[in-house]
Write a structure and sequence with these properties.
Phosphonate ABC transporter ATP-binding protein; membrane; ABC_transporter-like_ATP-bd; about 35% helix; Rossmann fold; 4-stranded antiparallel beta sheet; single chain
Protein backbone atom coordinates (compact mmCIF):
# COMPACT_ATOMS: atom_id res chain seq x y z
CA UNK A 1 0.00 0.00 0.00
CA UNK A 2 2.70 2.50 1.05
CA UNK A 3 6.37 1.83 0.34
CA UNK A 4 9.35 4.09 0.94
CA UNK A 5 12.62 3.07 -0.69
CA UNK A 6 16.00 4.66 0.14
CA UNK A 7 14.26 7.90 1.08
CA UNK A 8 16.90 10.58 1.67
CA UNK A 9 16.83 14.28 2.50
CA UNK A 10 19.88 16.52 2.72
CA UNK A 11 20.06 20.15 3.79
CA UNK A 12 23.39 21.31 2.48
CA UNK A 13 26.10 19.10 3.99
CA UNK A 14 23.71 17.68 6.63
CA UNK A 15 21.78 14.48 5.96
CA UNK A 16 18.50 14.65 7.90
CA UNK A 17 17.06 11.37 6.59
CA UNK A 18 19.44 8.74 5.30
CA UNK A 19 18.17 6.00 2.96
CA UNK A 20 15.05 5.13 4.94
CA UNK A 21 13.04 2.18 3.64
CA UNK A 22 9.84 0.60 4.95
CA UNK A 23 6.66 -0.91 3.55
CA UNK A 24 3.08 -1.03 4.83
CA UNK A 25 0.98 -3.70 3.12
CA UNK A 26 -2.19 -2.80 5.03
CA UNK A 27 -3.57 0.07 7.14
CA UNK A 28 -1.88 0.15 10.52
CA UNK A 29 -0.86 2.42 13.37
CA UNK A 30 2.86 3.04 12.87
CA UNK A 31 4.95 4.83 15.47
CA UNK A 32 8.24 6.54 14.62
CA UNK A 33 10.41 7.10 17.69
CA UNK A 34 13.80 8.61 18.41
CA UNK A 35 15.54 11.54 20.00
CA UNK A 36 15.08 15.10 18.84
CA UNK A 37 16.96 15.57 15.56
CA UNK A 38 16.68 11.91 14.57
CA UNK A 39 14.89 12.81 11.33
CA UNK A 40 11.33 11.87 12.35
CA UNK A 41 9.65 15.14 11.36
CA UNK A 42 11.55 15.41 8.08
CA UNK A 43 10.45 11.89 7.20
CA UNK A 44 6.77 12.74 7.67
CA UNK A 45 7.12 16.03 5.82
CA UNK A 46 8.58 14.17 2.84
CA UNK A 47 5.70 11.68 2.86
CA UNK A 48 3.26 14.62 2.77
CA UNK A 49 5.39 16.53 0.21
CA UNK A 50 5.88 19.52 2.52
CA UNK A 51 9.63 18.88 2.21
CA UNK A 52 11.27 17.68 -1.00
CA UNK A 53 13.26 14.48 -0.90
CA UNK A 54 16.81 14.56 -2.22
CA UNK A 55 16.50 11.02 -3.53
CA UNK A 56 14.50 7.85 -3.11
CA UNK A 57 10.96 6.79 -3.88
CA UNK A 58 7.59 6.70 -2.11
CA UNK A 59 4.95 4.50 -3.73
CA UNK A 60 1.28 4.63 -2.75
CA UNK A 61 -0.90 2.12 -4.58
CA UNK A 62 1.43 2.14 -7.56
CA UNK A 63 2.04 5.90 -7.78
CA UNK A 64 5.37 7.52 -6.92
CA UNK A 65 4.12 10.48 -4.92
CA UNK A 66 7.52 12.20 -5.06
CA UNK A 67 6.99 12.81 -8.77
CA UNK A 68 3.60 14.48 -8.38
CA UNK A 69 3.28 18.17 -9.25
CA UNK A 70 0.57 20.81 -9.36
CA UNK A 71 -2.98 19.57 -8.80
CA UNK A 72 -1.89 15.95 -8.40
CA UNK A 73 0.46 16.95 -5.58
CA UNK A 74 -2.31 18.92 -3.84
CA UNK A 75 -4.66 15.96 -4.21
CA UNK A 76 -2.07 13.74 -2.55
CA UNK A 77 -1.74 16.16 0.36
CA UNK A 78 -5.50 15.88 0.76
CA UNK A 79 -5.27 12.09 0.93
CA UNK A 80 -2.31 12.27 3.34
CA UNK A 81 -3.42 14.64 6.11
CA UNK A 82 -0.93 16.25 8.49
CA UNK A 83 -1.37 16.97 12.21
CA UNK A 84 1.25 19.18 13.85
CA UNK A 85 2.62 19.54 17.36
CA UNK A 86 1.53 23.21 17.54
CA UNK A 87 -1.95 22.47 16.08
CA UNK A 88 -1.66 25.06 13.21
CA UNK A 89 -5.19 26.35 13.76
CA UNK A 90 -6.38 29.88 12.99
CA UNK A 91 -6.70 31.20 16.57
CA UNK A 92 -9.34 33.88 15.93
CA UNK A 93 -11.61 31.66 13.85
CA UNK A 94 -14.28 29.52 15.47
CA UNK A 95 -13.72 25.82 15.87
CA UNK A 96 -16.19 24.80 13.16
CA UNK A 97 -14.50 27.05 10.59
CA UNK A 98 -11.11 25.63 11.47
CA UNK A 99 -12.44 22.12 10.84
CA UNK A 100 -14.01 23.20 7.57
CA UNK A 101 -10.60 24.40 6.41
CA UNK A 102 -9.88 20.73 5.81
CA UNK A 103 -11.85 21.14 2.57
CA UNK A 104 -9.86 24.11 1.24
CA UNK A 105 -7.97 22.10 -1.36
CA UNK A 106 -11.22 21.39 -3.22
CA UNK A 107 -12.88 24.79 -2.81
CA UNK A 108 -12.75 27.91 -4.96
CA UNK A 109 -10.71 30.91 -3.85
CA UNK A 110 -13.80 33.15 -3.87
CA UNK A 111 -15.80 30.83 -1.60
CA UNK A 112 -12.85 30.62 0.77
CA UNK A 113 -12.44 34.41 0.94
CA UNK A 114 -16.10 34.91 1.93
CA UNK A 115 -16.17 31.95 4.30
CA UNK A 116 -18.97 30.26 2.35
CA UNK A 117 -19.46 26.61 3.24
CA UNK A 118 -21.94 24.09 1.78
CA UNK A 119 -24.51 22.88 4.32
CA UNK A 120 -23.37 19.30 3.77
CA UNK A 121 -19.81 20.23 4.77
CA UNK A 122 -21.02 22.11 7.85
CA UNK A 123 -23.09 19.11 8.94
CA UNK A 124 -20.13 16.79 8.41
CA UNK A 125 -17.81 19.05 10.39
CA UNK A 126 -20.23 19.07 13.31
CA UNK A 127 -20.59 15.28 13.11
CA UNK A 128 -16.81 14.88 13.28
CA UNK A 129 -16.57 17.26 16.25
CA UNK A 130 -19.32 15.28 17.97
CA UNK A 131 -17.44 12.05 17.32
CA UNK A 132 -14.35 13.55 18.97
CA UNK A 133 -16.35 14.78 21.96
CA UNK A 134 -16.02 18.52 21.34
CA UNK A 135 -19.15 19.45 19.39
CA UNK A 136 -20.08 21.91 22.15
CA UNK A 137 -16.91 23.88 21.32
CA UNK A 138 -17.92 24.50 17.68
CA UNK A 139 -18.85 28.21 18.04
CA UNK A 140 -15.88 29.13 20.23
CA UNK A 141 -12.66 30.68 18.98
CA UNK A 142 -9.90 28.12 18.67
CA UNK A 143 -7.64 30.20 20.92
CA UNK A 144 -10.14 29.79 23.80
CA UNK A 145 -9.67 26.02 23.92
CA UNK A 146 -7.19 23.96 25.93
CA UNK A 147 -4.23 22.39 24.20
CA UNK A 148 -5.84 18.96 24.17
CA UNK A 149 -9.04 20.36 22.70
CA UNK A 150 -7.12 22.27 20.04
CA UNK A 151 -5.31 19.12 19.01
CA UNK A 152 -8.62 17.30 18.66
CA UNK A 153 -9.85 20.17 16.47
CA UNK A 154 -6.73 19.67 14.33
CA UNK A 155 -7.58 15.95 14.09
CA UNK A 156 -11.15 16.85 13.09
CA UNK A 157 -9.78 19.15 10.38
CA UNK A 158 -7.66 16.27 9.09
CA UNK A 159 -10.71 13.98 9.02
CA UNK A 160 -12.59 16.57 6.91
CA UNK A 161 -10.08 15.74 4.18
CA UNK A 162 -11.23 12.10 4.30
CA UNK A 163 -7.61 10.97 4.09
CA UNK A 164 -6.27 7.48 3.54
CA UNK A 165 -3.27 8.33 5.74
CA UNK A 166 -2.95 10.58 8.77
CA UNK A 167 0.54 11.82 9.65
CA UNK A 168 0.86 13.08 13.23
CA UNK A 169 4.08 15.00 13.91
CA UNK A 170 4.68 14.72 17.67
CA UNK A 171 0.97 15.30 18.38
CA UNK A 172 1.30 15.08 22.17
CA UNK A 173 4.69 16.68 22.78
CA UNK A 174 3.17 19.94 24.08
CA UNK A 175 0.35 18.35 26.08
CA UNK A 176 0.00 17.30 29.71
CA UNK A 177 -0.35 13.53 30.38
CA UNK A 178 -4.16 13.51 30.57
CA UNK A 179 -4.65 15.39 27.30
CA UNK A 180 -1.87 13.36 25.68
CA UNK A 181 -3.80 10.19 26.47
CA UNK A 182 -7.05 11.66 25.09
CA UNK A 183 -5.35 12.58 21.81
CA UNK A 184 -3.64 9.21 21.43
CA UNK A 185 -6.90 7.40 22.26
CA UNK A 186 -8.57 9.47 19.53
CA UNK A 187 -5.95 8.62 16.91
CA UNK A 188 -6.08 4.94 17.80
CA UNK A 189 -9.88 4.90 17.60
CA UNK A 190 -9.77 6.54 14.16
CA UNK A 191 -7.45 3.80 12.95
CA UNK A 192 -9.55 1.02 14.46
CA UNK A 193 -12.95 2.34 13.35
CA UNK A 194 -12.09 3.87 9.97
CA UNK A 195 -9.29 1.61 8.80
CA UNK A 196 -7.04 4.61 8.14
CA UNK A 197 -3.27 4.34 8.37
CA UNK A 198 -1.86 6.54 11.14
CA UNK A 199 1.85 7.33 11.25
CA UNK A 200 2.82 9.20 14.42
CA UNK A 201 6.14 10.62 15.51
CA UNK A 202 6.60 9.96 19.21
CA UNK A 203 9.30 10.67 21.79
CA UNK A 204 8.32 7.87 24.12
CA UNK A 205 8.64 4.12 24.09
CA UNK A 206 5.70 3.83 26.47
CA UNK A 207 3.32 5.55 24.08
CA UNK A 208 4.58 3.47 21.17
CA UNK A 209 4.08 0.25 23.09
CA UNK A 210 0.59 1.21 24.19
CA UNK A 211 -0.84 2.43 20.88
CA UNK A 212 1.17 1.22 17.90
CA UNK A 213 0.97 -1.95 15.81
CA UNK A 214 4.51 -1.43 14.54
CA UNK A 215 7.38 0.83 15.54
CA UNK A 216 10.26 2.31 13.57
CA UNK A 217 13.17 3.65 15.59
CA UNK A 218 15.39 6.34 14.05
CA UNK A 219 18.81 7.59 15.03
CA UNK A 220 20.87 10.14 13.09
CA UNK A 221 18.50 9.93 10.14
CA UNK A 222 18.62 6.15 9.80
CA UNK A 223 16.24 3.36 10.74
CA UNK A 224 17.88 1.34 13.51
CA UNK A 225 14.78 -0.57 14.63
CA UNK A 226 11.70 -1.86 12.82
CA UNK A 227 9.43 -4.24 14.67
CA UNK A 228 6.48 -4.76 16.96
CA UNK A 229 6.09 -2.95 20.30
CA UNK A 230 6.89 -6.18 22.14
CA UNK A 231 10.30 -6.19 20.46
CA UNK A 232 11.27 -2.84 22.05
CA UNK A 233 13.82 -4.44 24.35
CA UNK A 234 16.54 -2.76 26.36
CA UNK A 235 18.96 -3.40 23.51
CA UNK A 236 16.60 -1.83 20.99
CA UNK A 237 16.09 1.23 23.20
CA UNK A 238 19.85 1.60 23.61
CA UNK A 239 20.31 1.43 19.85
CA UNK A 240 17.62 4.04 19.22
CA UNK A 241 18.49 6.52 21.95
CA UNK A 242 22.19 5.90 22.36
CA UNK A 243 21.91 5.67 26.14
CA UNK A 244 21.49 3.09 28.89
CA UNK A 245 17.87 1.96 29.13
CA UNK A 246 15.93 -0.51 31.20
CA UNK A 247 12.66 -2.10 30.14
CA UNK A 248 10.01 -3.29 32.59
CA UNK A 249 7.55 -5.82 31.17
CA UNK A 250 5.55 -5.80 34.41
CA UNK A 251 5.00 -2.05 34.35
CA UNK A 252 4.79 -1.91 30.52
CA UNK A 253 6.98 1.17 30.73
CA UNK A 254 10.50 2.17 29.80
CA UNK A 255 12.90 4.25 31.85
CA UNK A 256 15.66 5.92 29.87
CA UNK A 257 18.69 6.93 31.88
CA UNK A 258 21.17 9.50 30.71
CA UNK A 259 18.90 11.19 28.19
CA UNK A 260 18.35 14.91 27.83
CA UNK A 261 15.49 16.24 30.01
CA UNK A 262 12.87 16.46 27.24
CA UNK A 263 13.33 12.84 26.21
CA UNK A 264 13.65 11.52 29.75
CA UNK A 265 10.40 13.28 30.71
CA UNK A 266 8.60 12.04 27.61
CA UNK A 267 9.63 8.46 28.35
CA UNK A 268 7.59 8.47 31.55
CA UNK A 269 4.60 10.58 30.49
CA UNK A 270 2.15 7.72 30.05
CA UNK A 271 3.50 5.09 32.37
CA UNK A 272 0.88 2.67 33.71
Amino acid sequence: MLTATDLTCRFGPRTAVDRVSFALDRPMFLGVIGRSGAGKSTLLRMLNRLTDATSGEVQFKGTDILRLTGRAKRDWQGRCAMIFQQFNLVPRLDVASNVLHGTLSRRSTLATMFNLWPETDIARALDILDRLGIADQAPKRAEALSGGQQQRVAIARALMQDPAIILADEPIASLDPMNAQLVMDTLRRIHDEDGRTVIANLHTLDTARRYCDRVIGMRDGRVVFDGTPDQLTTGAAREIYGADASFSEKATSTTLDGLPPDTAYASTMLET
